[in-house]
Amino acid sequence: MRKKIIAGNWKMNKTVVEAAGLARSIADQAGEISDPLILICPPFTALTEVAMALKDSEIQVGGQNMHAEKSGAFTGEVSAEMLLTSGCSHVILGHSERRALFSETSAVVNAKTIAALVAGLIPVVCVGETLEQREAGTTNQIIEEQVGGSLDSLSEDDMLRTVIAYEPVWAIGTGKTATPDMAEEVHVYIRGLLAEKFSQEIADEVSILYGGSVKPANAPDLFARENIDGALIGGASLTAELFVPIVKTMEKLEV
Ligand code: PGA
Fold first, then answer.
1. 90 given a catalytic annotation
2. Which of 90, 130, 186, 196 is the most exposed place for a label (fewest CB within 10 A)?
3. Which of helix, strand or coil describes residue 41?
4. In CATH terms, is domain 5-254 a member of 3.20.20.70?
5. Rounded CA gap, 79 and 72, in Å?
6. Among 49, 67, 90, 95, the one annotated catalytic
7. pTM for the predicted model, two decimal places
């Protein structure tokens, strides 16, 4: 049974005080929910405070990025161990904003993914095509390159500990969502790639999240699809009033 996950990617938003307050509101409104797994990814500066605010809840905390090296002269970067010891269980890697704005290639994402797994963090590896690529009909090729490159040389065990997020770049922060059919089609394609690379059994165990303008209104139709195992949410994760109803949509599907 694949794990259902609703993750909030707060990006470069929220001061320490604001972040701890939002984490508490989400915990209060979500109550005891443990399925789906709720994951919150605040900026680095707020990780410790958010983890403290959530210590009595089931909600887990993740980083939004990390460096592949363990330590050293990498000004501005943080390591897997730093995330772990700040209370993180997960880390988002290869988000399209990292790929586009910070030149992260799939090889870089791969090195980070391996470093995260070695350290004991669960990587949430993001893939997704741009509008140009979709219109040129190259979505599958792009996804294949990003999945293959980012997950290169992972063992079966590694793969079982890794989460994938499909986030079409044209749907991120734009209010445009992939239709459930479009998202499901790519999720099926990704699962097929995992089956080829590993095995069908492994592919069937990997959670594949959808991201890109997920809101309370579009969540039910997306989550009803067989291969959509949750969401990675940006804008709508910045208030408990939008985020928690999405969590509850997934929880209700479970019963
Ligand atoms: P969005 O962001 O929900 O604001 O579109 C999703 C993401 O970038 O993870």
1. no
2. 196
3. strand
4. yes
5. 9
6. 95
7. 0.97
